[in-house]
Design brief:
This is ABC transporter substrate-binding protein. Keywords: Signal. It holds the Pfam family SBP_bac_5. InterPro entries: Peptide/Ni-bd, SBP_5, SBP_5_dom. This protein is of the alpha+beta class. It folds into 2 domains: about 170 residues, Periplasmic binding protein-like II (D-Maltodextrin-Binding Protein, domain 2); about 210 residues, Dipeptide-binding Protein, domain 3 (Roll), CATH 3.10.105. It contains 16 helices and 25 strands. Strands 8-9-10-1-11-21-12 form a 7-stranded mixed β-sheet, with helices on both faces. The protein has a 5-stranded mixed β-sheet with strand order 18-17-19-13-20, sandwiched between helices. A 4-stranded antiparallel β-sheet has the order 4-5-7-6, with helices on one face. Strand 23 and strand 24 form a beta hairpin. The longest helix has 17 residues. It is globular and about 70 Å long.
Length: about 525
């Protein structure tokens, strides 16, 4: 199994597409509290019924081991189980398919003891052989597994110790691996599914061990999940045991926000995602409830392509950092549920370092930086150097892009926003024909930085090898929490100080449900879980 793959540009494009373009809202609660991660319950759970939920995007691939789209991960969480689960409040790793685990003193080997009796929905046992097939298969997927390839970097062997015991051995200490075992990407699929082609799996031919089965998929229209009979191995955070309460979950794919809002108000659906700030108060109480949680990981922002002439200039990147008024962006576009970004990492991420001072709005300094670097204001107000205007093309980006465009124009930077469809986004980012790309990535571990900013991985900013690589690599192998957080802080200082990321706002998930929907929860990565959900008659 090869180590430290330098993934191709198309992989970086995929990450940006699924976690940048798809994000419709951003932010966080005061102090990084994370919001309300469950709808709670008001009575005795009742079995039966169909929950119809309006999702905001259509999946490019339904296989959670391959793609990291929000809708893919939502489906994946219902049909697959993971070895462990992460508590969204404390970050603690707790049992699921693994009842216990042990790490070697040097952090290179991890042994998991599996629970007895768990099966995939085709009847195959969830045993050590199945775990080995899944994890080895993710490594073999390589670049197709956008996140898994980083989670399992350095895996040199997967040993079946006995039918219910498996040991993973890495070539170096792996500080992030235990948290990764709680991820949906490392959720388990049946060996029969693993035998299929990646394309067949993307099309929805998936069998997992979870409480629901994927029973129907109509591309760009709907995804239907049905309750699995006989499920009895929920994770340690679940509120009940046995089968899921709901008979069916139908995910309607509705990309237009106003249509989603109207569908919930009219009762055509019972839940929606990506509730726009202007609509959130409509669902905050009474016949509806809001479910909110701040995303950990890399915040919503722009990643510069440092191979482009203007973005290769450190003064331009530095000017971008201070020419953007992040608080104005939140005040204008969002509400008091949201927060401006204060680092490349969200405040809810372990190892987060507050870099508010470095990101303070200071247009005068931006002007001085650009003047000093030879970017002279032209007759139209746009700066010019060596005959070339300071025009930057932004690929994708969220609703804040238009306001940022105005803020940058005030210091002589011409930001051109290029909104394209999913296929075009992948093609353009792969080609490198852009200056900035809209981006964010969710993970409750600072190792998320390595996936994006290390030259040995996706390397979204297209950097040459540099000292940041060493900091990120050392963070991955450092087992002491305090020392690891120190390295995470150093990495954040470098990324912000060098302008490798231009953060804007913290990403924030906002869902709305009718009052008859009870027991909805969000896991640590802000993905919905319908296992404990029930409908009040």
């Amino acid at each position: 199994m090869s180590r430290r793959r330098a993934l191709p540009a198309i992989v970086a494009a995929g990450l940006a597409l699924t976690l940048g373009l798809a994000a419709c809202s951003a932010g966080g609660d005061e102090g990084g509290g994370g919001g309300d991660s469950t709808t709670g319950t008001t009575g005795e759970p009742q079995a039966g019924g169909t929950l119809t939920f309006a999702a905001s995007q259509s999946p490019g691939c339904l296989d959670p081991q391959q793609l990291a789209q929000a809708i893919t991960m939502t489906v994946g969480r219902q049909i697959t189980d993971s070895l462990t689960v992460q508590d969204p409040e404390t970050g603690e790793i707790k049992p699921w398919l693994a009842s216990e685990w042990e790490a070697s003193a040097d952090g290179t080997a991890f042994t998991f003891t599996l629970i007895e009796g768990a099966t995939f929905s085709d009847g195959a046992p969830v045993n050590a052989e199945a775990v080995k097939a899944n994890f080895d298969g993710i490594v073999e997927l390589g670049a197709r597994s956008l996140l898994g390839s980083t989670y399992l970097d350095g895996l040199v062997s997967t040993e079946v110790v006995d039918p219910q015991t498996v040991t993973f051995t890495f070539d170096e200490p792996n500080a992030q691996f235990l948290q990764a075992t709680a991820s949906i990407t490392l959720g388990l699929l049946s060996p029969a599914t693993l035998a299929l082609t990646p394309e067949e799996r993307c099309a929805g031919d998936l069998i997992g061990s979870g409480p629901f089965v994927l029973s129907d998929y109509v591309q760009d229209e709907s995804i239907t999940l049905t309750k699995r009979e006989g499920y009895d191995w929920p994770n340690a955070l679940a509120e009940h045991t046995g089968d899921a309460y709901l008979d069916t979950v139908v995910l309607q794919l509705i990309t237009e926000p106003a249509v989603r809002t109207g569908s919930l108000q009219s009762g055509q659906v019972q839940g929606i995602q990506d509730v726009q700030p202007v609509d959130q108060d409509l669902f905050d109480g009474g016949e509806f409830s809001l479910l909110t949680q701040a995303n950990p990981g890399i915040v919503t922002g722009f990643v510069p392509n440092t191979q482009r002439p203007a973005m290769a200039d450190p003064a331009v990147r530095d000017a971008l950092q201070v020419a953007i008024n992040r608080q104005e962006t939140v005040d204008t576009l969002y509400n008091d549920r949201y927060l401006p970004a204060t680092s490349v990492l969200a405040g809810t991420t372990p190892g987060y370092l507050d870099l508010t001072a470095e990101l303070a709005y200071d247009p005068e300094t931006a002007i001085e930086l650009l003047d000093g670097a030879g970017w002279v204001a032209g007759a139209d107000g746009i700066r010019v150097k060596d005959g070339e205007p300071l025009t930057l093309s932004l690929l994708g980006g969220g609703p804040e892009s238009a306001l940022v465009q105005q803020q940058l124009a005030a210091v002589g930077i011409d930001l051109q926003i290029r909104q394209v469809d999913a296929a075009q986004y992948v093609e353009i980012q792969s080609s490198g024909d852009y200056d900035l790309a809209g981006y964010n990535l969710t993970r409750a571990d600072p190792d998320v930085l390595k996936a994006i900013f290390s030259t040995e991985y996706t390397n979204v900013p297209r950097l040459e090898a540099n000292p940041l690589d060493d900091t990120l690599a050392e963070m991955s192998v450092t087992l002491d929490t305090d020392a690891r957080n120190e390295l995470a802080g150093q990495a954040q200082q470098t990324i912000i100080g060098e302008g490798y990321n231009i953060p804007l706002v913290e990403q924030f998930q906002v869902f709305a449900f009718s009052s008859d929907v009870q027991g909805i929860t969000l896991e640590a990565s802000t993905r919905l879980s319908f296992y404990d959900t029930w409908l009040e008659n």
